[in-house]
Amino acid sequence: TADGDKDPNLFFGLDVEFNPEFSVLLEYNSALNENDMTAQSMSINKGGYLNAALRWSFVESLHIELDLNNLLFDHEKVDYFKREIKITYIEYF
Questions:
Q1: Which of 7, 14, 41, 59 has the maximal Cβ count within 10 Å?
Q2: What values do phi and psi take at 25, rounded to 5?
């Protein structure tokens, strides 16, 4: 609310497992709470943020993930397309 905008936002995420080892992740933030975005002017190619990832769980507690961020690459909001590789270790006790 620091920017003076009280609009709600819309966000969704999706995690699809093809088998116990491979997953595809998608997330979209519509950015409706940014001052220049309205529900009437919203479209996938004119705002919002789209991220995707591929995850490979090659052993039960170790995952490697390739993240692709800012896929829509709106030049007015972001300056770059970002790629990340994550290695995650999960142990339950």
A1: 7
A2: -120, 140
Q: Which phi and psi angles does 42 have, rounded to 5°?
A: -75, 135
- Any bridge partners for residue 27, and if so which? 13, 51
Answer yes or no: is pLDDT of 42 > 60: no
- Across the range 14-25, mean pLDDT stands at 94
- 42 vs 89: CA distance, rounded Å: 38
Q: Give the span between the Cα atoms of 63 and 14, in whole angstroms.
A: 18
Contact 53, 85 (CB under 8 A): no
Alpha-carbon torsion, ordered 72, 13, 4, 38, to 10 deg: 60
Question: Stretch 1-23: mean pLDDT, rounded?
Answer: 83
Measured distance CA(36)–CA(40) in Å, rounded: 11
